[in-house]
Amino acid sequence: MRHMVLIRLDPTTIPEGGPDADMVSEITALLEEMTKAGVLLDTNGLRPIEEATRLRQRPDGSAAVVDGPFTETKEIIGGYLLLQTRSTEEATEWSSRFLRLHDPSWDVELELRQLDHQD
């Protein structure tokens, strides 16, 4: 089974300069463990929301393209993990381990979703 894990966060809770060295080291070690276990297919952080572009189609068929920054944004997708596991429970366990490595001051949430088509 493949799962996409979306890392949602409130950017105002991230310390200036990003995560500290210990947190980076712990996350790196977990990602290496996941890779060796054959679970982690891909992961990455996303560029800042200020650099984002939103495309929207409205019900009347009109389209809009809007460049950031998006001042109303209180929660952003900061990155993702693409996992391949034997079950949703296994994907949940790996994701939980990843989440626990974030400093408690961060307002972070993981959204775990199984891919619709499994290649």
UniProtKB/TrEMBL annotation:
Residues 1-96 form the YCII-related domain. InterPro entries: Dimeric_a/b-barrel, YCII. Coiled coil: none annotated. It comes from the Bacteria. Belongs to the YciI family. This is Transcriptional regulator. It comes from Nocardia huaxiensis.
